[in-house]
Write a structure and sequence with these properties.
By secondary structure, this protein is an alpha+beta fold. The protein has 34 helices and 36 strands. Helices cover 39% and strands 17% of the residues. Residues 30-89 have a biased composition (Basic and acidic residues).
Length: 1181
C-alpha cells in the first residue's frame, strides 16, 4: 500500500483524490489476487478431474483387457475342446478303419487260399502231372523240424527257415520270401531231381477224385486273370499294394463316324461332294487375300487348299485337305470333343482344324457344333450368360403401403442375451428401416416381432419376402389373413427382386461389424443406435432422410446437439395452433413425398440404363429346352448346370414355369440358358454359304490368327441389341461366324494406304530422352515387348530420335506416348478434309437400327512407308526403336486414317465414320444385315480387324460422337452429363474454363447458352482475379446450366426432305436462334445456337439487335438453309417487312441485301410462343 501512496504523490494527487486513488488501487490488487486464487483453485480442480478421468480410463482399459483375456481364454478352451473331440473322432475312425482292414485282409487270404487250391488242381493238362508229382513228392518228404530245411519245388528251390504246423492245409506253404515265384508263374521246366527215384502214387490226394464243379462255380469270381497276378504272402508291403492297385480306365468319347477312312475312300468322297466341285474344276490360280495368298491344287488325286502367310507356319505354304461333307462332323468331333481336343471355343477349334483341313463354311459349322456341345453348355461360366433387361418396380406413393422383410443370420458369435438372428423391414416409399434381434426364427417368433413393428408404424397393405419357411407357413398365412395383408414372394434363387432390403442388410452388417469390434457379443445393444444413424442421413434415391419423409421434420441428432453446445444458439419454435400445425405438416409431407417419388423415378431410370448396357432381351417359348444355372455339385471340378429341362409356360415378363423331373418350378430368366441340341446328322452348309466371287471365294478364312498368342477377345465379346428377336440374333451369330477373324483385339495390317512423312528440312531431329521413373520402367518394357511381338515396332539404328513419355491412365495403368513435336514442326501438313459431326448426324435421318464398330487400334493397322520408318524412331532406357505401323501423335496420322477409311467405304451407303468409329444405320433389319456383310467383306479385303468388346450390333439406341441416338432423336450422353452434374463448383479461372468447355460441347441442346453462361465467362477475362468472386449471378448461371442438363433435352435429327423453321430472338445480353422441323404436326428442335453480345453490339437499337439475331442465325445454320425454302419466325413485327420496306439505317440495309440470297418466308409469332429463343434469354438478363 505504501507504494500506492508514493505513486499517488508522484502523480501530484492530494487529499481526497489521493485517498480514493490508493483505495481503488488496493481494490484492484485484491481483485487480481482473488482472480489468481480462483484460477489456481480451478486449475487444481481441473487437474484432479483429469486425474480422475485418467484413472477411470485406465480402469476401463484394464476391464476391457481383462474381458478380452477372458474371452480369449474361453475361446482357447473351446478350441482345445474341439481339437480333443476331433482327435477322439479321428482315433475312433482309425480304429474302425483298422478293424475293417483286418477283416478284409482275412477275407482276402481266405479267397486266395481257395484260389491256390483250385489252381493247383486244375492247371493245364500239360502241367497237371508235374504238379501231382511235386505234391506227391512233398507229401513223402520226411517231417520238417523247426529250423532250416532244404526244399526243391517249381515255386522255390533252396534252403528256408521252416515252421511245423499241427493242422496244415497243405504239406508245404511258401510265403512272401526272396526268390519265390508267383503262384500263377511256376517253373514249367522243373522236373524231379535225377538223383531221386520216381515215387509211385500210393496215396492219392484227398480231393483228386472229387467233383469240384461247385467249388469252381463258387470261386469263379475270385480267380484272377494272368494280367492281374496275386502274391500269396503273410504280409503285403506298400510297394506290393501299389503294384496290385488297378487303374480306372478313362471314358472313350463316342464318335459318330467310327469307320476307318483310307486314302481311296477320301478321294471317292471328295469327288462325290458337290460343294467341292468348283474348287476341283477351277484352274490352279494364285489369289491374294489381305496379306496372304490362296490356291487350290490336286496332288495324288487328293484336293488341297494351299495357304501362305508371313505369320502362319513360319511363312511356309500350309497345305489343307478339303474335307467332304460326310467326314466334317468326324473332324469336328476329334478337334473339339476328344480327350486331346479339350472342348475349346469356336476360335481355337477352328484354328486347330485349319492347321490341316478346310471346307467351305467351316466357321459356321464349327460355331454350330461348339454351341450344341452338351458338356460345354453345362459347364459355361455363369458370367458368360447375359442378363435380361431390368424391369421397373412400381413406385409406392404412400408410406408403409408396401414393406420388404428379410432375416439376417445365423450371426456368430451370438449376443450375450442369446440373439442369433435379425429381422429387418424397409418401407418402399420412405426407405424407413426397422431391425429386431431374435433368439430364434420359428414362425411364431417372427410373427410376434412383425406385429410389434406394425403396432408402431401401422399395418402395411403388402409385404414382400423370400420363400423362407417362416414367411410361407400356414401360421404366417393366417396372420396375413387376419391383418388383411397381401403377401408377395420372390422367385427362387432370385434375391434381386427383394433388393431394397438386401441392400439394407449389407449396410447393417457392415456398420454393425464396425461398431461392435471391441465387444462383439454386445452387438444387439448397438441396433437402435445404428438405425438412428441410417434414418438421419439422406437416402440416395429419394434425396431425403427417412426421418424427414416419416415425420415431416429434421430430428435433433448429434450434429444439432454439438452445434447448440458450441454456438449456444437454440431455435425457438414458432407457436402454432393444432389445426395450423397439422395442416402445414400434411402439406409439407405431401410435397416431400412428391419430390421423393420424382427422385426415385430418376434413380430407377438411371439404374436401369446402366444395368441394361450389357443386357440381352432373352425370351423362351413353351417347348424350349433350357439349362438351369444352379450347380449340380459344390465341387468345382464336378460342377455342371442342371438340365436340360423343358419350358412349360410363360408366367411373367421374365419368369417361366419349367418341368423339373416330376414337378414344375418357376425360375427367373437370369437362371435359365437356352439349350442347343445337336442334330443327329451333320449340318448341311450349302444353304448358308454365299457364292464366293474371285476375290471373296475363301469365305474370310485366311488363318491370319492361327497360332497367335496375343488375341484375348472374339465374337463372344460382341454385344447385340437388347430388343432383337431370337431369329435376328441367330442371323447375326451366323454372320459373325462367317467373319470370325475380323473380330479380334489384335490389329491387322492394311494395304489400302501407307503413312507418309514428308519433311521440309533435311536437318536430323534428335531429342534427349526424358527421364523415366523407375517404377514405370517395368510397364514400359512390357509394352515395348508386346509391340515387338505384334510387329508394330522394331529395333532401330536411325539417326532420328524422339523422346518417350509415360502417362498414367484412369485405371492406374501406364500409357506409352511418343513426343513427336519437333518432327511435326518440319512436317508438310496433309490437307485431307475431316468430317464434321453435324454432317454425320444429318445422314442418320430416318434410321432405326444401328451397329457401332470400332477398329482395333486403328492407327496400328496402317503401315508406315518403308523410307519414312527411320523418321519415327524413339528412344527408351532399353534401346532405340522405330515404328512399322502408324504411331499416335504425328501431325498427319489422322488424315492418313481418314484417307484409308474413305477409300474403303467409297460408294457404300448407310455407313458413316468418325476417325476409326464406324456406324451402320438402316431402317430395316434385312437391309442392316446386308450392309453389315458388305462392310465386313470390305474390311476383309482391306485386312482390318475390329475390337469385339467395343462393337454393338442391331440396336436401336447407340452412343456416337458423345451423343445418344434413338429413333430419330439425338440426346445427351449420360456419362458426360453425370460428370457435369457431379463436378464440384469451380473456384478458379482454370476450373471455370474446364466446366464451360465440357458443358459447351452440348450447347446446341441449350437455348441461349452464351447468354446463360455470360456471368461465368466474364469471370475468365484478362484482369479478373484467378480466384473467382462467386456471386448471385454466377451461382444462378451455374445452377441453370446444371438444371438444363439434368432435364435430358432431346433434339431431332435433321431431315433435308422437310421444311426448316428458324426462330430468332435478341435480349440485352445476347442473341439466340433455334432450328426446328415439324414431326406429327408439331415443331421439334433440331439445334440451338446462341451468342453473347459484344460491348458495341449492346448499344444497338432493339430492331438492330433483332435483325442481327436473324442474320447471325442464318449464317450459323447456313449448311441447312442454303438453297432450300425455309420459314423465319420472329416476335418482332417490323421485321416481317424485310423484303419490301426501305430502311434508312445503313447497317440494316446491308443485312437486308445479304438476306436476299436466301429463299425464306418471314412469319410473326407471339412472344409467348417464342419460348425456345426468347424465354431463357430474358431470364438470364
Amino acid at each position: 500500500m505504501a507504494e500506492f501512496w508514493a505513486k499517488g504523490i508522484e502523480l501530484g494527487l492530494k487529499g481526497k483524490q489521493l485517498t480514493e486513488f490508493v483505495e481503488s488501487q488496493t481494490r484492484l490488487l485484491a481483485q487480481r489476487e482473488e482472480r489468481q486464487a480462483q484460477r489456481e483453485r480451478e486449475e487444481k480442480e481441473r487437474q484432479a478431474q483429469r486425474e480422475r478421468e485418467e484413472k477411470e480410463r485406465q480402469a476401463h482399459r484394464e476391464e476391457r483387457q481383462a474381458q478380452r483375456e477372458r474371452e480369449e481364454r474361453q475361446a482357447q478352451r473351446e478350441r482345445e475342446e474341439r481339437e480333443r473331440e476331433a482327435q477322439r473322432e479321428e482315433r475312433q475312425i482309425e480304429l474302425k478303419r483298422l478293424e475293417l482292414q483286418i477283416k478284409m485282409e482275412m477275407k482276402r487270404l481266405e479267397l486266395q487260399t481257395k484260389m491256390v487250391r483250385v489252381q493247383n488242381q486244375h492247371e493245364a493238362p500239360r502241367q497237371r502231372d508235374d504238379q501231382q508229382q511235386m505234391l506227391h513228392r512233398a507229401s513223402k518228404l520226411p517231417a520238417f523240424t523247426d529250423g532250416k530245411d532244404q526244399i526243391d519245388t517249381p515255386d522255390f528251390t533252396g534252403e528256408v527257415e521252416a515252421v511245423c504246423l499241427k493242422k496244415p492245409l497243405y504239406d508245404l506253404l511258401i510265403g512272401n520270401i526272396g526268390g519265390a515265384r508267383r503262384p500263377d508263374d511256376p517253373d514249367v521246366e522243373w522236373r524231379m531231381g535225377a538223383a531221386q527215384p520216381a515215387v509211385e502214387e500210393e496215396d492219392p490226394l484227398p480231393f483228386a477224385n472229387e467233383d469240384i464243379s461247385e467249388l469252381l462255380r463258387d470261386d469263379r469270381a475270385t480267380v484272377h486273370r494272368r494280367d492281374q497276378p496275386q502274391v500269396v504272402s503273410a504280409v503285403t508291403t506298400r510297394a506290393q499294394a501299389k503294384k496290385d492297385k488297378t487303374t480306372t480306365p478313362l471314358r472313350v468319347t463316342n464318335s459318330s463316324a467310327t469307320a476307318v477312312v483310307d486314302r481311296d475312300r477320301l478321294i471317292q468322297l471328295q469327288e462325290a461332294d458337290s460343294t467341292l466341285t468348283k474348287y476341283r474344276s477351277r484352274p490352279v490360280k494364285e489369289m491374294t487375300k489381305g496379306e496372304g495368298t490362296v490356291q487350290f491344287e490336286v496332288k495324288a488325286k487328293i484336293l488341297y487348299r494351299v495357304f501362305q502367310h508371313a505369320r502362319v507356319n513360319g511363312g511356309k505354304p500350309l497345305r489343307q485337305v478339303l474335307v467332304p461333307q460326310p467326314l466334317r462332323r468326324q473332324v469336328m468331333e476329334v478337334a473339339h470333343d476328344s480327350i486331346m481336343g479339350g472342348h475349346l471355343g469356336v476360335k481355337k477349334t477352328s484354328d486347330r482344324i485349319q492347321a490341316a483341313f478346310y471346307w467351305p463354311g467351316l466357321h459356321a459349322d464349327v460355331t454350330r457344333f461348339c454351341r450344341s456341345c452338351d458338356i460345354c453348355q453345362k459347364t459355361i461360366p455363369r458370367g458368360r450368360v447375359p442378363k435380361v433387361p431390368l424391369q421397373k418396380m412400381p413406385l409406392i406413393d404412400r408410406p408403409f403401403k408396401r414393406v420388404a422383410i428379410d432375416l439376417i443370420g445365423e450371426i456368430k458369435p451370438p449376443s450375450e442375451a442369446g440373439h442369433r438372428w435379425v429381422l429387418t423391414l424397409v418401407d418402399y416409399a420412405t426407405r424407413y428401416p426397422e431391425a429386431v434381434p431374435l433368439k430364434k426364427i420359428d414362425t411364431e417368433t417372427v410373427a410376434e416381432a412383425l406385429v410389434d413393428i406394425f403396432s408402431r408404424i401401422g399395418v402395411p397393405e403388402e409385404i414382400l419376402t423370400d420363400l423362407g419357411t417362416q414367411f410361407v407357413s400356414e401360421c404366417m398365412e393366417e396372420v396375413n389373413r387376419l391383418l388383411s395383408i397381401r403377401h408377395l414372394t420372390t422367385t427362387p434363387y432370385h434375391p434381386m427382386c427383394n433388393g431394397l432390403v438386401e441392400k439394407f442388410n449389407a449396410t447393417l452388417k457392415s456398420t454393425l461389424k464396425k461398431l461392435c469390434s471391441e465387444q462383439p457379443r454386445q452387438w444387439h445393444r448397438y441396433i437402435n443406435a445404428l438405425l438412428f444413424a441410417y434414418r438421419e442421413v439422406p437416402q440416395e434415391s429419394t434425396g431425403f432422410s427417412p426421418f424427414e419423409l416419416m415425420y415431416g421434420r429434421t430430428v435433433r441428432g448429434p450434429m444439432q446437439i454439438l452445434k447448440e453446445l458450441w454456438t449456444k444458439d437454440v431455435d425457438t419454435p414458432e407457436v402454432k395452433n393444432s389445426y395450423q400445425y397439422v395442416f402445414e405438416l400434411r402439406e409439407k409431407l405431401e410435397e416431400t413425398l412428391e419430390i421423393s417419388r420424382e427422385n426415385l423415378r430418376k434413380s430407377q431410370d438411371s439404374g436401369k440404363h446402366y444395368y441394361d448396357r450389357k443386357a440381352v432381351n432373352r425370351k423362351f417359348t413353351p417347348g424350349n429346352k433350357v439349362l438351369i444355372l444352379l450347380p449340380t455339385d459344390h465341387n468345382k471340378l464336378l460342377m455342371q448346370w442342371k438340365g436340360p429341362y423343358e419350358v412349360e409356360a410363360v408366367v411373367g415378363i421374365n419368369d417361366y414355369k419349367v418341368n423339373v423331373g416330376k414337378k414344375s418350378k418357376i425360375y427367373h430368366a437370369n437362371l435359365l440358358k437356352l439349350y442347343v441340341e445337336r442334330p443327329p446328322e451333320a449340318v448341311q452348309v450349302a444353304a448358308s454359304v454365299e457364292e464366293p466371287t474371285e476375290l471373296d471365294e475363301f469365305d474370310g478364312e485366311e488363318l491370319l490368327e492361327l497360332g497367335d498368342l496375343h488375341k484375348k477377345e472374339g465374337v463372344d465379346d460382341v454385344k447385340l441389341g437388347p430388343d432383337l428377336t431370337e431369329d435376328q440374333q441367330k442371323e447375326l451369330h451366323d454372320f459373325m461366324g462367317d467373319f470370325t477373324h475380323r473380330f479380334s483385339d489384335v490389329p491387322g495390317s492394311t494395304s489400302l494406304v501407307e503413312h507418309e512423312v514428308h519433311l521440309t528440312s533435311d536437318v536430323l531431329v534428335r531429342s534427349k530422352p526424358y527421364p523415366i521413373p523407375f517404377q514405370a520402367r517395368e510397364s514400359l518394357k512390357k509394352d515395348i515387348d508386346n509391340m515387338l511381338k505384334m510387329g508394330v515396332i522394331r529395333e532401330s539404328s536411325s539417326p532420328y530420335s524422339s523422346p518417350v513419355v509415360v502417362v498414367k491412365k484412369k485405371d492406374g495403368t501406364n500409357r506409352v506416348c511418343i513426343d513427336f513435336r519437333k518432327v511435326n514442326k518440319i512436317t508438310v501438313f496433309d490437307p485431307e478434309p475431316m468430317p464434321t459431326a453435324a454432317d454425320l448426324f444429318r445422314r442418320l435421318t430416318g434410321s432405326k437400327i444401328f451397329s457401332k464398330i470400332d477398329l482395333s487400334k486403328g492407327y496400328w493397322q496402317i503401315p508406315v512407308r518403308e523410307e519414312d520408318i527411320p523418321k519415327t524412331a524413339f528412344a527408351t532406357p532399353d534401346g532405340t526403336y522405330e515404328c512399322l505401323r502408324m504411331p499416335f501423335g504425328m501431325v498427319n496420322s489422322g488424315a492418313t486414317l481418314k484417307r484409308g477409311m474413305r477409300k474403303m467405304l467409297k460408294g457404300m451407303k448407310n455407313v458413316v465414320y468418325y476417325w476409326d468409329d464406324l456406324l451402320v444405320h438402316t431402317e430395316t433389319f434385312a437391309e442392316h444385315l446386308e450392309t453389315l456383310r458388305e462392310l465386313f467383306s470390305r474390311l476383309t479385303k482391306a485386312n482390318l480387324t475390329v475390337r469385339p468388346s467395343k462393337c454393338i450390333l442391331g440396336t436401336d439406341n447407340v452412343d456416337f460422337i458423345g451423343h445418344s441416338l434413338k429413333e430419330g432423336q439425338k440426346g445427351l450422353l449420360l456419362e458426360n452429363v453425370t460428370k457435369i452434374l457431379n463436378a464440384p463448383r469451380p473456384e478458379t479461372k482454370k476450373q471455370v474454363r474446364s466446366f464451360l468447355g465440357l458443358a459447351g460441347y452440348y450447347r446446341e441442346f441449350i437455348p441461349n447458352f452464351a447468354a446463360i453462361t455470360a456471368p461465368l465467362s466474364d469471370m475468365t477475362r484478362k484482369g479478373c482475379p484467378n480466384r473467382i468472386l462467386w456471386g448471385p449471378a454466377q451461382e444462378k448461371a451455374y445452377q441453370t446450366v446444371r438444371d438444363l442438363m439434368s432435364r435430358d433435352p432431346v433434339l431431332r435429327l435433321p431431315d433435308t426432305a422437310k421444311e426448316f423453321i428458324l426462330r430468332t430472338d435478341a435480349s440485352d445480353e445476347g442473341i439466340g436462334a433455334m432450328l426446328m422441323q415439324e414431326h406429327g404436326g408439331k415443331p421439334f428442335p433440331v439445334s440451338y445456337a446462341s451468342k453473347k453480345l459484344s460491348g458495341a453490339e449492346k448499344n444497338y437499337s432493339t430492331m438492330e439487335k433483332e435483325c442481327l439475331a436473324i442474320v447471325w442465325g442464318i449464317k450459323k445454320f447456313e449448311l441447312y438453309l442454303q438453297g432450300v425454302k425455309f420459314v423465319l419466325q420472329t416476335d418482332h413485327k417490323p421485321l416481317t417487312y424485310l423484303n419490301s420496306a426501305k430502311f434508312v439505317n445503313n447497317r440494316i440495309m446491308r443485312w437486308v441485301m445479304y438476306l436476299q440470297n436466301f429463299d425464306m418466308r418471314v412469319e410473326s409469332i407471339k412472344g409467348s410462343d417464342n419460348v425456345g429463343a426468347d424465354f431463357l434469354s430474358r431470364v438470364c438478363d
